[in-house]
Specification:
mainly alpha, 5 helices
């Protein structure tokens, strides 16, 4: 039996948390490293830099944008 990849486990955990209504600060912060590693795979420098800025966004900015999107 094959083991699930780290990416699948992280994505699954993130989705489970979001689906359960738990977009908590801990979950957000724990996934920042994963988001950064995904940004590092982008070859185009401008896109990679944009991705990193988004991945490094603090919790308060994320929550503010999330609330705006819900309205």
């Amino acid at each position: 039996m094959s083991r699930p990849s780290v990416t699948r486990v992280l994505v699954g955990a993130t989705l489970a948390g979001l689906l359960a209504g738990c977009a908590s600060q801990d979950l957000y912060q724990s996934s920042q490293g994963f988001r950064r590693s995904q940004c590092e795979r982008i070859l185009e420098a401008d896109r990679r830099a944009d991705c990193m800025r988004n991945a490094d966004r603090d919790w308060e900015s994320y929550e503010r944008d999330r609330e705006r999107a819900r309205r």
